[in-house]
Amino acid sequence: LDYSSAKGWHDGRIIPYEPISLDPASKVFHYGQAIFEGLKAYITVDGEALLFRPDRNFARLNHSAERLCIPAIDEQQALEALKQLVEVDRAWIPTEAGTSLYIRPFIIATEADLGVDESTEYKFIIIMSPSGSYYAEGINPVKIMVEKKYVRAVVGGTGEAKTSGNYASSLISSKEAHEQGYSQTLWLDGKENKYVEEVGSMNIFFKINGTVVTPELTGSILPGITRDSMIQVLKHKNIPIEERHIAIDEVIDAHTNGTLEEVFGTGTAAVISPVGRLLWEGEELVINNEEIGDVSQLLYDTLTGIQSGKINDDFNWTIR
Ligand code: PMP
Which residue's CA is the closest to the ligand 1 atom numbered 4? Predict the structure, then answer.
């Protein structure tokens, strides 16, 4: 789909995957006016293609668009287009358990002009690719590093938008985490460097003394669709869940006094990823003996059960 200020969004089409050509002065190359989404199509146990809450992804795309001065898309039209696209690529969706078709919608500013102001032209593209499980470790616990040196986002910044710049500024932290043997970074807030925010590509949850706690959405955290879904599942199962500020010190203290029972991340790619080790100021905390906790397992089973059509979708999240 293309956008120009004269025509609005126009010329929607499905074409074979191929390189696109852009003017070297396209604004996206210089000023980062780019937003994206990530979601998946699954093949159910009955052999049907299924999308998980795609409406939420297009709503979030529009939210990101607003922050980046990009014209809004028609969410309903985008959803219809996506359904057609999945139909066209149906044969490419892998069927083994845990696999899926990864879907990447994105919008870039294509006006050829070096002025620092919003573009008058855009492209909205959806690409797709078969995918296995995200972490090499599979559902086994991952190791994450608490970041002290860099910040990902501040309130009023672009942290809650899914824009390329957030990921560009995070690269150095991921690189340093990898060098030390950790798979991702756990970000703290950008103001006091004290409150837990989220992980590189997932939202974070802690089970402390029977209660699940996740950082509240302050404006600098990506409002994860899996996060929202899992909060609803926890409420449905009557497991205590709190969305609130949580200081890294509270996590460390809970570990010290033995009440930190589980840590896990949620995300489209990460699904439910238990955290087995947390590096904080040079010290490594081992969580739940590096085993998958009960709540992580329950959420994993519920989420993958709904996505594979094995269990009933009581929440009305799936579209076939
Ligand atoms: N935080 C960040 C920074 C992410 O990139 C992602 C992945 N989109 C998430 C959280 C999880 O969001 P979702 O559950 O919508 O995939």
Answer: 201
Question: pTM score, two decimals?
Answer: 0.95
Model pLDDT, residue 135: 47
Query: 268 alpha carbon to ligand 1 midpoint, in Å?
Result: 7
Q: State if residue 222 touches ligand 1 by the CB under 6 angstroms criterion.
A: yes
Q: How far is the CA of 224 from the centre of ligand 1 (A)?
A: 5
Q: Which CATH number fits domain 2-131: 1.10.150.20, 3.40.50.300, 3.30.470.10, 3.20.20.80?
A: 3.30.470.10
Out of 56, 201, 272, mutate this one to test ligand 1's pocket (max ligand atoms within 8 Å of CB): namely 201
For the chain, how long is the longest CA-to-CA vector?
Answer: 63
Q: Note whether 2-131 and 142-314 share their fold.
A: no
211-214 and 241-243 beta bridge pairing? parallel
The pLDDT averaged over each successive group of 10 residues in the chain (320 residues) is: 98 96 98 97 92 98 98 97 95 84 97 97 97 61 94 94 96 96 95 95 97 96 98 98 98 97 95 95 94 95 94 95
Q: What is the length of the chain?
A: 320
For 73, which DSSP code?
P
Class of domain 142-314: alpha beta
184 C-beta closer than 6 A to ligand 1: no
ipTM of model over 0.95:
yes
In 3D space, the residue among 251, 207, 203 whose CA is nearest the CA of residue 229 turns out to be: 203
